[in-house]
Amino acid sequence: MARLDAKLLSSLIAELRRRHPGIFIIAFPHWGWNYDWKSIRQEQEAKNLLAAGVDLVLGHSAHRMQEVERVEGRWVVYSLGNFMFGSPGRYAELHSPPFSLVAMLMFRVVDRQLQPFLKLYPILSDNLQTGYRPRLVNETEFADVVQLLRQRSSSHDLMRTGVDNLGSHLRLELR
């Protein structure tokens, strides 16, 4: 992960907000250790991104889901994990939960204002278990995902669970 130029990012975001009031800014950093939980460096970089004015951090690169936390009033998904990945993976070898998250950013209108929210659909992403066909988790696996995130994430009480026509998901209110 390259070091963030916080001053430059802050000035760019300030200019974007000046030109486009109400803009919603998402950072998508490529960071983290493979098949592991978040690192101290990820936590610090997430705080830097938020301090620069980012509204949501959706990290990736760890090949599995990582913690989901509310930091300074905004959400950080440290790693979504894998969606389609053409390697067998090392989940079992590294004793890593075989789950990833698929993000769906949605907006609804409330009092003539756009209100963003995020749905995170857990998937089983271990190719050795799925035959290279990741799938949405079943009910038991969803309970495992929720338990893991509640154990590891400081903001678990702010995450909502739901089921829709796509499947079970976590729901995060973004504003």
From TrEMBL:
Alphabetized InterPro entries for the sequence: Capsule_synth_CapA, CW_Biosynth-Accessory, Metallo-depent_PP-like
Leader sequence segment: none
Domain (Capsule synthesis protein CapA): residue spans on this chain: 5-86
Family statement: Belongs to the CapA family.
Name of this chain's protein: Capsule biosynthesis protein CapA
Species in which this protein is naturally found: Candidatus Methylomirabilis lanthanidiphila
Biological classification of the source: Bacteria, Candidatus Methylomirabilota, Candidatus Methylomirabilia, Candidatus Methylomirabilales, Candidatus Methylomirabilaceae
